Amino acid sequence: MGSTRHAARHAARRRPAGGLARTSALMVVGTVVSRATGFIRLGLQVAALGTGLLATTYNNANTVPASLYTLLIGGALNSVLVPQLVRARVQHRDGGLAHEQRLLTMVLCVLAAGTLLAVLAAPEIASIYLPDTPDHHAAFELTVVFARFLLPQILFYGLYAILGQLLNARNRFGAMMWTPVLNNLVLITLFGLYLGLIGSSSGSTSVTPADVRLLGIGTTAGIALQALALIPYLRGCGFSFRPRFDWRGTGLRASISAARWTLLFVAANLAAVTVVTRYATAADSALPHGGVGTSAYTYAQTIWQLPQSVITVSLVTALLPRLSRAVAEQRLDDVRDELSRGLRATGMVIVPAAFFFLAFGPEITALLPGHGPTLPMGRMLQAFALGLIPFSAQYLLLRGFYAFSDTRTPFWAALWISGLDIALAVGCHLLLPARWAVTGMAAAYSLSYLAGLLLTATRLRRRLAGRLDGRRLSRTYLKLVLAAGPAAAASWAVVRSLHLGAPVSAPAGALAMGPLFLASAWLLRLPELRLVRRFAPGARVTSGSRP
């Protein structure tokens, strides 16, 4: 028995090394293409809608489905159900097929009912973000009309999530990374048509009902295509869907119980999003043409999350099933090693990216069409910048709890993060002028995730028998900061001294900072340089090798 367990543990350590590298590389490539097309889409959206009140009405109407995408697909719900699906495939005689069909049927029913209720409640939802007052009635009405077109995305976001979970449970990760490209292509075509037929707009009163239909239907169609494109991949894996309503006494209680805490997790995050959006909309109302509110915040946050989406999400999606199996086999050392390895590998990209955003925020946003480097959006990106480090690390550490099927602890962490974020956002709204209030909220978001990281790490350390590889992680991140900080400052000074124009300043800064950072990392003898090569596309990994 002991020798069998030892062999199983040894095989578990050996088997995934190269597989994780190849899978992560495939996902990274797909995510890079997705984010690259997404950046083109973002540029066309800014060119078409601007950053004023019109863009605010569109983005506010998109807040609920977009928030559900971020919170459900990009994080919690996906992480909760994958361990449940993996266990069902191992423990059930039919490989978990009946369990999956029941779960998919239940999710579709809940999504359909929730989407219908959301569309019917569109005015009430819009009033959360923009009060219906005489001064803002036109903008409020436009937000409601946009919402009726955009809220059906909830169904397709949820469908994309559950179908992707079924694929992830089968170790098929690529489709979820590639199908968003289809959505981006639809939106690129949409905003291109809008620019060609209508031109750029900035006021909420300058659009016609036909314009709203074009934007609303086109946006929802892109999300629908993204979700439905997963169906052929599932069929290729041998999955066939038959609606099953025999839910009672079939083992779904564990999934429902886990989802209960996940929904509370979503509610806590959504509360913070709602407060920030409402105050950011107030800043837009105070300065309608200043670009200091919701849209600038949303665009800056989208750019800020690019490294997280490309690196951390790709690695974590492939890592979670491995963590779940290690927990099921009580291999706590392997859980700890995988989390440490993931944090150190992602840190090699996340830390320099954070300092790059801090140094070149305005220059990066200048790459968007029609906007200069001194826009408030660039300052917001700088305010977000260093928060990328705790944001990414906390995202990865939460997967340790999900591997244990613990969704309660992530909820409490989210509650503390959201509570602190709300308190700081209220302070920014009350104490700062409209020009700087939302920039302060971006900094508040970063600070709240730093506090959340400390809380999450403390709780997870207890779960892992009092050890989290803390010394090695602290040493690695200290060296990364020492390498990235001076490299960012030096590259900023070089670019400023050359007096380069706005469109080339950010690329020039990246070209200067990259070699400086790598040279500094080499001088500091960071072993994580080898770890990154291990996860690079085409890397050859020796079985059983350790970083």
TrEMBL record:
Intracellular or extracellular location(s): Cell membrane
PANTHER family on file: LIPID II FLIPPASE MURJ (PTHR47019)
Protein name: Murein biosynthesis integral membrane protein MurJ
Domain of life: Bacteria
Membrane topology: Multi-pass membrane protein
Transmembrane feature ranges: 20-44, 64-82, 103-122, 142-163, 175-194, 214-234, 261-282, 302-321, 342-360, 380-398, 410-432, 438-457, 477-498, 504-524
Organism: Streptacidiphilus jeojiensis
UniProt keyword Transmembrane, yes or no: yes
Main location: membrane
UniProt KW keywords: Cell membrane, Cell shape, Membrane, Peptidoglycan synthesis, Transmembrane, Transmembrane helix
